[in-house]
Known about the structure:
Chain B is mostly helical. Helices cover 75% and strands 2% of the residues of chain B. Chain B has a two-stranded antiparallel ribbon. In chain B, helix 5 (86-121) runs antiparallel to helix 6, helix 5 (86-121) runs antiparallel to helix 10 and helix 10 packs antiparallel against helix 12. By secondary structure, chain C is mainly α. Chain C has a single domain, classed as MetI-like (MetI-like fold, Orthogonal Bundle), CATH 1.10.3720. Chain C contains twelve helices and no strands. Chain C has helices at residues 3-6, 17-30, 33-50, 52-55, 96-132, 134-148, 152-166, 172-204, 207-214, 219-255, 267-275, 284-311. Chain C is elongated and about 75 Å long. Chain A: Belongs to the bacterial solute-binding protein 5 family. Chain A: One of its GO terms (biological process) is peptide transport.
Amino acid sequence: MLRKLTLAAIVAAGFSTPGLAETLKWGSSRDIYSLDPYSYGDSYTLSFLNHVYEGLVRYDANLEIEPALATSWETVSDTVWRFHLREGVKFHNGADFTADDVIASLTRVSDPVSPLRGNLPAYKGAKKVDDHTVDIELVGPYPLLLNDLTNIHVFDLTWLTDNKSLKPTDVGAKVEGYATYNANGTGAFKVESRVPDSKTVLVKNPGWWDASKSNIDRIEFTPITSAATRVAALLSGEINFTENAPSQDLPRLVAQPDLKVMERTDLRTIMVGFNRKPKLANGADNKFNDLRVRQAFAHALDSELVQKRIMRGKSRTAGAIIAPEIPGYVEALDSVLPFDPDLSKKLLAEAGASDLPFTLVCTNDAYVNEEELCQGLVNMLTRAGFKPQLDIAPAAAQTPKRAGGLADVYLIGWANEPMLDSYSILLQMIKTKTDKAGVFNWGGWTYPEIDKLIEQASTEMDRTKRLELQTKALQMAKDDLIMLPLHQQPMAWVMSNKIDGITQLADNKPRHWLTHFAQ
Amino acid sequence: MLVFTISRIANAIMVMLAVAMLAFVIFRLAGDPVELMVNEQMTQEDRDNIRERLGLNDGTATQFVRFVTNAARGDFGISYRNGQDVLTLIGERFPATLELVLVATLISLVVGLPLGVLTAIKRGRWYTESLQFLSIIGVSLPSFVVGILLILVFSVVLGIAPSFGRGEVIQIGWWSTGLLTPSGRAALILPAVALSLYQITLIMRLVRAEMLEVLRSDFVKFARARGIPRWRIYFRHALRNCLMPVVTMTAMNVGSLIAFALITETVFQWPGMGMLFIQAVTFLDIPVMAAYLCIISFIFVALNTLVDITYAVIDPRLRNAR
Amino acid sequence: MTSDTSKPGAAQPTTMLQRARGSDVWWSFTHSKSAMIAATVLAVLILTAVFAPLIAPQNPYDAAQLDMWKAELPPVWQEGGEWPYLLGTDTQGRDMLSAILYGTRISIVIGLASVALSLLIGMTAGLVAGFFGGMIENVLMRIGDITLSMPTILIAILVSTVVRQLLPSELREIGASAVLILAISLSAWVQYARTVRAQTIVERNKEYVQAARLLKVPARRILAYHILPNTLTPVLVAATLNFGMAILTEATLSFLGIGMPPGQPSLGTLIRIGNQFLFSGSWWIVLFPVIQLCLLVVVVNILGDWLRDVLNPKLR
């Protein structure tokens, strides 16, 4: 039967593409939410759709910004940026790429109902200078516009107009969007078909403006939620690439002669946050406001055990709340408090918090080996004189609790995407919670001095000075143990041995326009 | 007869209304979807706006009325998770689940009927006793364990059947079928077998019990006395007499199987309604959960009502019952 | 079943279970090899589960006893295995044998408690509906209809998801088993209610009940002393078979991740966790819980099946 199957696959592939057809059978741990990059604020969907749609700029192999649909840019004034667009670029439907398309896309993404608005926080408006020049106006001086633009995908204005999709899909209005099912970008691949949760097929775009490094003719993207099934599919050859292989199966996969494994650590830093309101959710006085209790927490954790056992030696133990690749990082931020349960007990006793009962709120569908990690934390904390309880459930169930300030202690991961700058975490997590900032300040803390540094950084156009301000803010956050970083989580890509060129960056995003099969 | 039919249908509608209400009440309690719909960089202001536009800030009564009136029109809204019309979404998955369930039902009939007959007519032999014993194991094995074992043996160790998905499907109008392609049929085998196991044992036991009853009856004794060959008695007369309850049970169990398929679908990553539902549960995709519950209940109630009415047509005595 | 060929005598009409059938059941039991074996195995499983704290080398729920440096040890007979971890350890350094014994305990307790709760709900509803009739009967039976219009697994999933969602964080772990018991019993009570109601209607119209009513014996008394005992036989058979079903439902919910939390794993939770290690070589994490769960449900069902054959001669 297996032979029959492969035969059928060859026949099927033969019909779609002549000659040496290379098909990437990509098994992922989850599906994308939609074909519309603006329908959902989801990094994974965006990174997949980057194969189809492109932004004005993109990250290169060193995560530095390089030109994409724009060839160059300059600042006209403090608040106006001018972009010169690439000429001769065509959308998949054959339409030419012009300034109008860029303006329509910017308008669409910053629409009040767009869930992706937050990705372009400083945007005010855009003006067409000529067919291939656009001015983007910002609300004030803002240093990170280019970073933001890497993930603002460009649509074709005529296509949007013809399909009544000038506005993004609005779940609240109960209207389906045409762009949810159809796509028309400028990227290296075109969408051939999509069945949600089952299969999305991309085919090569022969008219791509960039010199393609890839010889992939066809990408079959299949979500396989269960890690064990995904491994089974790899072993049986039903898929030949995954960017999410479970760490416990890596030894077996490495031993497989026709597979190869690529590992490294991610930008995403996993950390512990503490409730900092005067009272805990159950009405008790909040002992976590005492620095000694937070220090006791830190000394209770055996980072070697976490790294070696739970993360199977694949993670990078972190002392800083950002990964080394993120601007703003300096080595001084990365020191880890030593494992010393006796010291923990002593500190707890001093703070009058011995046998401190609390609930650790964890998710089980967001981070690597999360369930094991949370259980492990509970074990270690119990030994060091805490009385933790574990509340673990899918993110959907936990988020309201965490965001509502009802979690005593919680786990959170932050990758600083798509900005790739420590300004992201400072603004969204460390800063005091307001309408415009501190959305992930779930503990409800306020540090006026840190806030001031962040505000200075937000308008500082000199990169070096800005990063100094951010590093200073990070150091102050570290000194007061606002967040307790654990590690940068590992990533493991497994693929067929026939793939001889692939780009794996710390942002854990597959870029298959760079993937190459051996001939 | 007309009165009976109308009363059954009215009853079914009442039950469906109650289910719809229940669906709403349950999901009203289930949690806040907004935090999942937005990304890391969205501000609190924007989050509040979305909540407002979804109507999550309205009073419970208002939301309830809105839900029931919309649901009655078949409008369950847009999925929070992927922005598609919920009914379309479920419609896309329905063929996958139905094909799985029908093939599983077919397998269970093809295997269960002969086994049931055999255990009845060869009662007391060692092999029929072992079959009876095996049937208990059949109802006792959790279906997720069966699924895992099948994948382990046939996909990983032997490598002769796919471990996930539906294979290549062919679109016929809005219906997508995997039955017309070799890979589609191959992908169907393991999940269908896993799902049918429980049903096989049910049918086998039912057939056995019915057969034993019929074999004791006077007309079989009479037929035997007339010297009609045994196999003819078994298959022409006895089996025919016990087919009715088997067909009824099989029909009514289709609803149950559709719901139970969610476990099989989860294990085999079968892109059907059940997997959609489980994903909606983890994601608190309330519109999808509500619609799934209503649709499953509808299938259930419709099948039951149909069976009731059919029975009443066949046997007029039942019309006055209840 | 082997029992059905060995039991002599024609069936008596349904009467009081203990008096009329006591000796009969025992006779049938001692003459059914499979029933005896199943009962022995079940007794062993129950006893080891009840006395788990005395037998198990470790308390798997006490986080302080788990040593993660001892995680994923194979069973002792394999290279790298260590005493006292007879069946190896899981990823938290939890002794598999202890985890299985405690997990079986949870499965049995949840199974028993949910059968008891659904019996309580179902029999009360059935008795009340059958005895009083009218409006009460209508309402109760309509509620039953609605429950039956949804597959049991669906009800269980919905109830456990929603109720758990309503619990405050600190009660999630402690309340998990209670939530499961509630979810399973709410999905299973209708069957009892219908059986008991039908039986009650039959009994209600019998002369002795009519006489008692004329004598103004309180309804509660009539229900408890006269009607209830006569409904017990069919209910008992159903309850035994449902015990197996309840264990399976609990395991399924836990497998789907909406049952017992990882901190106090039931057999289903252990299988869910172990399933992730199916291909990693750590087969003991999934295999032993699977064997234990299947064994438990099989013996319960063998006994239930046997009991049904004995008490319900029509099916033989």
